[in-house]
Amino acid sequence: MKLKCLSVNQPYASAIIAGGKDIENRTWAASYRGPLLIHASANVARLRDDVLGWVRERCPGCPADAADFTLGKVIGIVTLDNCVDIASRALSRWAEGPVRWLVSRPVALPAFPARGKPGLFEVDEREIPGEARRIIRAYAKGGPLPTPGPTTENRAVSSARSRQPALFHTQG
Length: 172
Prior knowledge:
The protein is α+β, with helices and mostly antiparallel strands. The chain has one domain: Hypothetical protein (Archaeosine Trna-guanine Transglycosylase, Chain: A, domain 4). It has three helices and six strands; from the N terminus they run βαββαβββα. It is globular. The model is unreliable at 150-172 (pLDDT under 50).
């Protein structure tokens, strides 16, 4: 079974999972809606002081130092609620791109390595460590979430209450 995933450059991936960034800006829309893993890209081009300062102003829960950002790993899960174009007037201080992906319900996961890819890609359930898999399954069911063990990469664990579409998709 496969899970949908999106690779996002740091510091924006952490801003999404810390709960401050409710829009991911893209140049294209996705037809998929539902639970979405957030992969922190290994690309460090945006981990500059000017970008970090701008993000910290908008998301106090984000790390203060570039060295503290996780790279090349899945760091959390959100719900992709919609993709809207610039004409939609999506109100958010994060709205900048021509297509805005509206995300909600961010939950940190125990980070696990995954190879990022362009666009939406899939992560096989068998590649997800047990603790992260338990949190993902609880998230998909909308029930209380198990609390992950202590790691520096787990900052924002929220409770999930509403029903969500199936997270695991069979290939076909």
